[in-house]
Design a protein that fits this description.
This protein has 284 residues and is of the alpha+beta class. Helix content is 21%, strand content 31%.
Length: 284
């Protein structure tokens, strides 16, 4: 899921309960149920027709999606916001939402903004969530091209529609290539990231999670790129438990050696969501 190469959150300084009003978009029906499965995986889905589904999601994860922020941009709140999990099914009856897979970039941004407002309203209603936004001076990174130039492969623009999976030969469906990704998709795990025909902004967003600070795309690269990046995860960011080589390169070294890009440390304002109030949602 999710987006933008700038963290476009203004320091408004008042509770976002104000967003929940007659003018703000909201779901017409919603089911929120505690998930007691003990599973670790979380699934979030935006579907055509105004549907939103979350399976085994914490309130903190839902907040990050609703306000388009990352873990390091969330401050305060009770511990259960990260540990308690919920299943959510919500729908905006009678409202036509676009299909994020087929929309233009401008349409997709507008649609995502509208959906985020709807999730914000849902969290305020069902979890009594109240937050405000602050800005603080912190470390940020600029993603730039390293000396020697980029080492990533640019894919030419698509000229024909992607093939429909139902038209593929049966044997290719029976034995899919686990390493092959559709164009425009990324796969990220502890110490590794694979991309097939994606914008550099997607890499910058993924790097933000890996380094625990905002990363802004300053490369000037505008195409769709394919690459694979492997590094030794930093245990300070909670992703050290992996099969990555403990003696392998840091993400900073790997980025330069493998992709021909680098991160330049800077200081700048970072917007933070501060949690003022939250309550556990009752089952319904």
């Amino acid at each position: 899921m999710k987006f933008s190469n700038m963290i476009s959150i203004c320091c408004l300084g008042f509770a976002f309960a104000l967003l929940v009003n007659a003018q703000a978009p909201a779901f017409d029906v919603a089911s929120v149920k505690p998930n007691k499965s003990g599973d670790m995986g979380t699934r979030i889905m935006f579907q055509p027709g105004g549907r939103f589904e979350a399976n085994n999601a914490s309130l903190k994860t839902l907040l990050e999606i609703a306000y388009d922020v990352r873990d390091f941009q969330v401050s305060g709140g009770p511990a259960w916001m990260s540990s308690d999990r919920y299943d959510i099914q919500a729908k905006a009856e009678g409202r036509q939402q676009g299909d994020l897979r087929t929309e233009t970039e401008e349409q997709r941004k507008a649609d995502l903004d509208r959906r985020r407002l709807m999730i914000q309203a849902l969290l305020a209603e069902r979890f009594k969530l109240a937050v405000h936004k602050e800005s603080k001076e912190s470390t940020i990174y600029a993603l730039v091209v390293a000396k020697g130039g980029p080492k990533i492969k640019e894919l030419p623009p698509e000229t024909t529609p992607a093939p429909d999976p139902k038209d593929a030969p049966k044997e290719s469906l029976d034995k899919p290539d686990p390493k092959r990704l559709p164009r425009g998709m990324m796969r990220m795990g502890p110490g590794e990231l694979t991309a097939q025909g994606v914008k550099i902004i997607s890499l910058a967003n993924s790097l933000s999670n890996a380094v625990g600070h905002p990363v802004f795309d300053k490369t000037g690269l505008t195409g769709d790129y394919t690459y694979e990046l492997k590094w030794t995860p930093d245990e300070n960011h909670g992703d050290a438990a992996s099969s990555a080589d403990a003696n392998g390169p840091s993400i900073f070294t790997a980025l330069t050696e493998q992709l021909g890009l680098k991160l330049e440390s800077q200081k700048g304002p970072v917007d933070v969501i501060v949690i003022d109030h939250a309550e556990k949602a009752s089952e319904n």
